[in-house]
From TrEMBL:
Protein topology in the membrane: Multi-pass membrane protein
Entry's localization field: Cell membrane
Keyword Iron set for record: no
Biased composition (Low complexity): 862-879
A GO CC term attached to the entry: plasma membrane
Annotated protein name in UniProt: UPF0182 protein G127AT_13520
Pfam families: UPF0182
Transmembrane segments: 41-61, 87-106, 144-166, 186-203, 233-251, 258-278
UniProt KW keywords: Cell membrane, Membrane, Transmembrane, Transmembrane helix
Species in which this protein is naturally found: Agromyces archimandritae
Length: 948
């Protein structure tokens, strides 16, 4: 009993902390609705399984022949079983009921969606049902039939076993003798099972519209003319055989149902398999192109609609390949916005120049955002200076890790199209304290992608702050402390809450530490995607979240999708496999097929207090309307979004990747051409990846003006090349897909152009080089190779940045930044050169401005905005930071100054040690933690200074 009570208390602690977490965040109804649905479904599943099984066993036992003559073997079985009979007759139904209840409760979403279903307003072309029937009704009906079939089947098996054990079924040679009561019960059970199979076969005819076997997803010619009619006939036969079993229960003759069962089996082979094969082989295959055309057209139309690409604007693009002088004059604004800073390459520069202390960190792949600066839009590479406790080393005590070091500090932003004279990023926002062009905002980051598993913050008003806010700099080397002043986590305002969280995190210090008081809060589940996933479990979340400054706060923006794999006639594809490219790995096993997707929700997570806000971005989506009925008031209308937030939302990458994968084939609207795969496309592999890494090139955000646009806009683009044939693909451009990602800056109103997909289609006779060809040209050009060899002299290595494709000058311009990085341990990439290509011509210069002028006959007609920098000349070793992390990009001090600084730091270290000992003697753990943290910083500075 003690053990049971202990286990029960641990379970209660987990449930209670969930209640506290959801309640503090304002989403308690999400948790309680899930719990209520799971409990109700468990009870329904338990009763629906246990009662029929128990009833079947009871009937079989109570109607057993009392004076049946048993053989010796059955006598021995009864002797063993009889003492356990009562336990088995109740225990078996209970165990099966638990399995049935658990199975039902794990699928809590399906019944809730069915009860709150919303019509799509679109009918399928085969049966004329609304699409909602396939998304909501059909899965629910098939689940009910499947569960009921399992119940009846298990009941029937147990009935047969019970009757055999007690002699109601006897086998004597070839003769099987069945008592009347057993015959009636078995026949009725078999009849019920066959009725359920008839219903299952009947529902299967509708499932052909979501089957993905063969050329298309959905019912093909064979399905419509053979499979669907065949299943209708088989359902009728199964129903007739079920009636024959019921008749047998009355008249006692088994001949008719047995003949009917044999007829059903033979019919299923002939009508269900052989006939469709004959139709496919001898009718469809010889004339497939014409016979399948109407069904291919259905598949094309409904796939394009399900993936949101039905309104795609296709623009024939006669791309020129001749680089004429002044060709970029009409595209001056686009040219000035070409991004030179690669967010996947320059992360080490952020770490070296902006990390400052070893306990801060930046992600390895940065994000692209845009800000209005001096009246013009500026693409920016952004990242949060997050907390990284792995940098504390020996100072990573419980007190430091959970009380002192609680948050990151500041957002760092660099101009996407600028660089300093030596190739460093030009920061728009940087430093500690944070300064720059983004204005004043709350810089503290308590909720980030690498935040600690939990932190305990908050204190009485008159208490001395113990949280490290940020380290001192310049003449003021003293640390700045702060106390969290928001509402970011459950309050630890009584001993019981401290106990349950001590159990949750397996940490007794939560109970005994004097830093945990009645004003304390505990912050956990701090990753933005994790928080949104918990409050909106019905959403599929984008794999990338990005930080931005909105209304004086740093907020994380998370895109949420509503998806289903039950949309009729729409192509299914694995989402995780489709979005995998050079920026994300393909999972070993994927079980996330979808054939309908909408970016229905934009979510924000406040980096300071963790507040999660969900906005209905696509309020017309039937799936999100259904979930809003289930979780009322959890999603805010788009009208509540501020103008600043609207200015920083963007078209999500994962949705765009799904759409480009579909458009690789479904840009073809002619069924005959689609069947022949005459013009199928694919996304090219990333040309900057290694030779053994065949991963797709990711889409890129750029501010540019597409044909059909009046002005440049923030966009997301990708390219297409011909689909692989015979293991090889011609790496020439066939399509250029871009989507307008600028939602405008008007509060609560999305720009009309947002989400507009434009596809530039290039004629097949035009051999405009694709990314792979261009990269090969760059790598094999002797002049480029010679200059790269010069750059790689000594301790340097060359890194190729992202290869951008920009539709300017009547053609397609390729731009690739080239970085130089020292091979030392504290080095970072510096932008030194720019490669450009237009048609067959290339240029390799110090700046993009110069490269474009060289490429376009001495005058491109536009300015790229980086013409005033003076990069290091080839052969000169780029200036790199001193040894150690977080040196702020400063060069190493003269040797004479090193000794002075070391001596000063040693004195400070001795003082910090004395303070630690004094604080320990007085029992002042807050002062002890502060001195310990100061000592760790001094040691880190000594390591940086001496390199030892």
């Amino acid at each position: 009993m003690v053990a049971v009570l202990v286990v029960a208390f641990f379970l209660f602690a987990g449930l209670y902390t969930d209640v506290l977490w959801y309640d503090q965040l304002g989403f308690l109804n999400v948790l309680t609705t899930q719990w209520a649905a799971r409990v109700v479904l468990f009870l329904i599943g338990f009763v629906a399984m246990a009662i029929p099984v128990w009833g079947s066993i009871q009937i079989a036992y109570r109607t057993r022949p009392v004076y049946a003559k048993l053989n010796s073997q059955l006598d021995r079985y009864q002797e063993v079983f009889e003492p356990l009979r009562r336990l088995a007759m109740y225990g078996i139904p209970v165990v099966l009921g638990i399995f049935g209840g658990v199975s039902a409760s794990t699928r809590w979403e399906m019944p809730l969606m069915w009860l709150n279903r919303t019509e799509f307003g679109q009918t399928d072309p085969q049966f004329g049902f609304d699409v909602s029937f396939y998304v909501f009704d059909l899965p629910m009906l098939r689940s009910i039939v499947g569960f009921a079939s399992a119940v009846v089947l298990l009941s029937g098996l147990l009935v047969i076993a019970t009757n055999y054990l007690y002699g109601a079924i006897r086998i004597s040679g070839r003769e099987v003798v069945i008592a009347k009561a057993a015959r009636i019960q078995i026949a009725v059970t078999a009849g019920l099972y066959l009725l359920l199979q008839a219903a299952s076969i009947w529902l299967d005819q509708y499932a052909t519209l979501t089957d993905s076997e063969g050329l298309i997803t959905g019912a093909s010619y064979t399905d419509v003319h053979a499979t669907i009619p065949g299943r209708t006939i088989l359902a009728a036969i199964a129903a007739v055989v079920a009636i024959l079993f019921i008749v047998t229960a009355i008249i006692g003759r088994w001949r008719l149902p047995l003949i009917g069962t044999a007829l059903l089996i033979i019919s299923s082979l002939i009508i269900g398999s052989l006939y469709p094969w004959i139709v496919q082989r001898f009718t469809v295959d010889p004339s497939a192109r014409s016979l399948e055309a109407p069904y291919i057209e259905r598949n094309i139309d409904m796939t394009r609609d399900a993936y949101g690409v039905a309104d795609l604007e296709e623009i024939p693009y006669e791309a020129t390949t001749n680089a004429e002088p002044g060709a970029l004059r009409a595209d001056a604004e686009t040219t000035a916005s070409i991004r030179l800073m690669d967010p996947a390459v320059i992360a080490p520069a952020y770490r070296q120049l902006e990390q400052f202390r070893q306990y801060y960190g930046f992600p390895s792949d940065l994000d692209v955002d845009r800000y209005e600066i001096d009246g013009s839009s500026q693409d920016a590479i952004v990242a949060v200076r997050d907390l990284d406790l792995s940098g504390l080393g020996d100072a990573a005590s419980w007190y430091n890790s959970h009380i002192v070091y609680t948050h990151g500090y500041g957002l760092v932003a660099a101009a996407g199209n600028q660089r300093s004279a030596d190739g460093q990023p030009v920061f728009l926002q940087s430093g500690i304290p944070s300064t720059g062009s983004l204005g004043d905002f709350e810089p503290r980051v308590y909720f980030g992608e690498s935040s600690p598993d939990y932190s305990i913050v908050g204190a009485p008003k008159d208490a001395k702050p113990v949280e490290l806010d940020y380290p001192g700099s310049g003449d003021d080397q003293s640390q700045k402390q702060t106390t969290f002043a928001g509402d970011g986590g459950p309050a630890l305002d009584n001993a019981f809450k401290k106990l349950v969280y001590a159990l949750k995190f397996q940490s007794e210090q939560i109970i005994f530490s004097d830093a945990v008081n009645d004003d304390s809060q505990i912050l956990y589940d701090r990753d933005p995607i994790q928080r949104v996933n918990k409050v909106a479990p019905y959403l599929t979340l984008d794999s990338d979240t990005y930080p931005t400054v909105v209304d004086g706060r740093i907020v994380w923006v998370v895109d949420g999708y509503t998806t289903t794999d039950q949309h009729p006639y729409s192509k299914k594809q694995s989402m995780s496999e489709t979005i995998a490219d050079a920026q994300g790995q393909t999972p070993p096993i994927a079980f996330d097929d979808v054939n309908y997707i909408r970016n229905s929700v934009k979510a924000t997570v406040d980096a300071y207090d963790g507040t999660v806000t969900l906005y209905a971005w696509d309020a017309e989506d039937p799936l999100i309307q259904t979930w809003q009925k289930i979780f009322p008031a959890s999603i805010h209308p788009m009208s509540e979004m501020s103008g600043e937030l609207m200015a920083h939302v963007r078209y999500p990458e994962d949705l765009f990747k799904m759409q480009r994968a579909v458009l690789g084939r479904y840009h073809i609207e002619d069924p005959a051409a689609f069947y022949s795969r005459e013009d199928a496309w694919t996304t090219p592999n990333d040309p900057t990846a290694g030779t053994n890494e065949a991963r797709l090139q990711p889409p890129y955000y750029l501010t540019m003006q597409m044909p059909g646009q009046d002005a440049p806009s923030y966009s997301l683009y990708s390219t297409f090349i011909p689909e692989t044939k015979g293991g090889e693909s011609r790496n020439v451009l066939r399509g250029y897909l871009a989507v307008d990602s600028d939602a405008g800056s008007e509060a609560g109103k999305r720009a009309d152009t947002y989400g507009k997909l434009r596809l530039l289609t290039l004629p097949e006779e035009d051999n405009v080089p694709g990314p792979g060809q261009v990269q090969n040209t760059f790598d094999s050009d002797p002049t480029v190779g010679r200059e790269l060899n010069i750059l790689q002299q000594g301790q340097s290595k060359v890194l190729n940045g992202n290869l951008l494709t920009v539709p300017v000058g009547g053609g397609l311009l390729y731009v690739q930044p080239v970085y130089v990085q020292s091979s030392g341990g504290t080095s970072y990439p510096l932008l030194q050169k720019v490669l450009v290509a237009f048609g067959e011509d290339i240029a390799f210069e110090n700046t993009l401005d110069t490269a474009l002028d060289v490429l376009f006959g001495g005058d491109s007609g536009a300015s790229a905005g980086d013409g005033e920098v003076e990069p290091v000349e080839p052969g000169t070793e780029p200036e790199q930071p001193g040894d150690g992390e977080g040196d702020g990009g400063e060069t190493a001090p003269p040797a004479g100054d090193v000794d002075t600084q070391v001596a000063k730091l040693l004195d400070e270290a001795k003082a910090a040690i004395d303070d630690k000992q004094a604080a320990l003697a007085e029992g002042d753990f807050a002062a002890y933690g502060e001195a310990d943290a100061r000592l760790a910083e001094i040691v880190a500075e000594l390591i940086e200074l001496t390199g030892e």
